[in-house]
Design goal:
139 residues, alpha+beta, 3-stranded mixed sheet, 6 strands
Amino acid sequence: MSIAVIRAETFYLPAPPRRGQPPMDWSGYPAAERVYLYAEHRMGRRIALPTETVPDAYFAHVNQNRWVASCVCGSAAVVSPADPRYGCTECGYGWATLVFPDDVDAVEAGLLLEPRPHLRNWWHPDDPTNPYREEEVAP
């Protein structure tokens, strides 16, 4: 059985309910906002959602079988193509647009060929941090 590439909506889940309490339902929250719910409920941190959109765009990449976006501050979070936004819970950077591949399903299907999920990594070809990026050679 292959393990699908992990997205924010399946990674950031509420804690199991305490005995006698109803379970929390996060299904109505967009994937990018679940990071903030997780930080509040699981880590005990009160963080306000970003209120502004920043002009920057980040490239999403797959790191050890998880869609991830990395912030300029060095923090990172699991993200989702279903909600291509990223806001940093560490430095408070506002909502940035995420760049995903044109065919997310094809990238994920290709990664599933690797039987070891911890070795599933992918970088966007245009991402300047891509360690396998082919540099253009000047004539």
